[in-house]
Amino acid sequence: MPPVEDDSVQVDDDSAAQAISVPDAADAGESGKLKMIVQLLKRCLGVKDIAAMRLSLPASLLEPIPNLEYWHYLDRPDLFAAINDSEDPFERMLAVLRFTFSKDLKFIRGKVCKPYNSVLGEHFRSHWDVIPVVYPSDPCDPPIQHLYLAPPAAESNYSTLTPTPSESPRPPASETASIMSGWSGKSVTSGLSLTSKGASTPGKSTPATSPDLSQTTLDGDMSNLNLADDAAALLEAGTAPAAPDTPRVRIAYLTEQVSHHPPISAYYAKCPSRGVELTGVDQISAKVSGTTLRIVPGSYNKGLFVRLTDGAGAGETYQITHPVGAVNGMFRGSFYITMGEATIVTCSGGADGAKLRAIIEYKEESWLGKAHFLLEGVIHSYEPDETQHLEWTRVKHVPRSRVLATLDGSWKHRIRWKRQDAPSSAHATLLDLSTLHVIPKAVRSLEKQLPDESRKLWENVTSKLLSKEYGEATKHKLTIEQRQRDEAAERKRKGVQFTPKYFESDIDSGIPTLTAEGLLALEEELKEEELECP
Among residues 149, 382, 436, 479, which one has the fewest Cβ atoms lying within 10 Å of its Cβ? Predict the structure, then answer.
């Protein structure tokens, strides 16, 4: 777990204090945005934790999407749903690592952006109906995937997502697919605008797993969130199986803002048909360091927790810690993300005996030249009744006798692995991220949403941003922020504390607990009527 800036965090539901604001520039173009960003950075120099500051940004600096919708870890739910498919503990660890590398695909495929700040009590619900990946009998073979794929990038440069040449001519930009977030009143799916002529229709679900779905092209206003710099042709797998051979499964997701100062949200996802759950607490600490914005987990953020509820892995929990992130190129207006330190994946629970643990170490980038986004890692065994493994936080710390496999590659491209007991064998591909696009989520229509549900809450801000009426968007945003301050002042006057609706207030362990209303909301999402879906 990376060090945090301040462990003594006092959770406060909010404060009536006025937020620090950055004036809107007259220029709504990129140069105007850059000027506002530079102004903001000047105000943040020397600030210990930017994430805990009360900042009110002009709407023109924001991407038209709520933070709770944007900030989740299910960019590839097909990999998440398949974590518990294998009978072998080592292969389950490989599956967890594939999910780990894919959970932030938006930062690989998309641009760095700033969503809306969540307000206290805001919540977001969604689901995915996907064909889970299929694992071949040989664990050295990569998983077979069916949804939202692209040609693999060239192997000569780990830092690129340029597709390799193929015999088929590359379609023009107007015929390629774009990753979007749907905000049309007609559309209820946050997904891809499929205009590629060659895209095939994936298999449908069976009633036993999830509702029957159809492929669709989304219309209406879209928020360009996840476009790669060079728009590669988006492909479906040419031989996507049809149900009942490979039915779709549903993953339901719920998140709520449980604290405003510091900003903290809790989340929970589950795929009952595959016995897989995901939960955790999101809180970050951010500080300007030189020309970068350094981001580390906050004290309540203990990582992601993947729990297996039945099958061969029943009782296992995988804790996945967060690395240190950095947003670079701020003063040039050309943002890109790098990772530092390490992610540690620890399996606990389940059957008796030795357990598995993985260390993913991110290589320090050179000050000169292009970033390469390289990593190395190991999978090793440990004894649950011992504590020495807690001191192993880097690859070099692990005794060779405990190492089962090694990893290397780029977290933006291809990652490979190799068994330690087979030194003469070739490396196998764990995951090629250059072939993956974000799988869109399905969201209920605005008419069905509650007033404090993210899309409904920010509806006016979003519509004005999409129509480029930035002044009006800022007015609606300020109205929401003032209402939050007024509600905080009223609670203070009455001497009452804010109580989350969907999660219990105690989040000290980093593993939130659903309330009765939270359980009901998830069950409703699992049973939600069929929606347009990937």
Answer: 479
Q: What is the DSSP string of 370-391?
A: ----EEEEEEEEE-TT--GGGG
Strand partners, 349: 316
Nearest CA to 238 out of 359, 347, 151 is that of 151
- The candidate with the shortest Cα–Cα distance to 115, out of 189, 225, 267, is 225
Alpha-carbon torsion (436, 438, 442, 445), positive or negative = negative
Angle between helices 470-494 and 459-466 (to 10 degrees): 160
Half-sphere exposure of residue 223: CA atoms within 13 angstroms, side-chain side: 28
Query: Which tokens go with 317?
Result: 């929990």
pTM higher than 0.85: no
Which residues in 372-406 are b (16+ Cβ under 10 Å) and which e? bbbbbbbbbbbeeeeeebeebbebeebeeebbbbb
Instruction: Give the span between the Cα atoms of 149 and 163, in whole angstroms.
Output: 12
Give the span between the Cα atoms of 235 and 232, in whole angstroms.
Answer: 9
Q: Are 188 and 223 in contact (CB under 8 A)?
A: no
The three-class DSSP label of residue 491 is helix
Residue 159 amino acid letter: S
* In the block, residue with structure tokens 């409703």: 524
Q: In what order do the strands lie in the sheet with 178-182?
A: 192-193, 178-182, 222-224
Say if CB 68 and CB 255 are below 8 A apart.
yes
CA atoms within 13 A on the CB side of 142: 16
Among residues 350, 332, 303, 369, the alpha carbon closest in space to that of 157 is found at 369
Per-residue pLDDT of the chain (534 residues; tens, 9 = 90+): 444 444 434 455 555 444 555 555 555 555 556 666 666 666 666 666 665 555 566 777 788 999 999 999 999 999 999 999 999 999 999 999 999 999 999 888 877 888 999 999 999 999 999 999 999 888 888 888 888 888 887 764 444 443 333 333 333 332 222 223 333 333 333 333 322 323 333 333 332 233 333 332 223 232 333 333 333 444 554 444 454 567 899 999 999 999 998 899 999 999 999 999 999 999 998 888 777 888 999 999 999 999 999 999 999 999 999 999 988 877 666 788 899 999 999 999 999 999 999 999 999 877 666 778 999 999 999 999 999 999 999 999 999 999 999 999 999 999 999 999 887 788 999 999 999 999 999 999 999 999 999 999 999 999 999 999 989 999 999 999 999 999 999 999 999 999 999 999 999 999 999 999 999 999 999 999 765 544
Cα dihedral value 145, 147, 153, 157, nearest 10 = -80
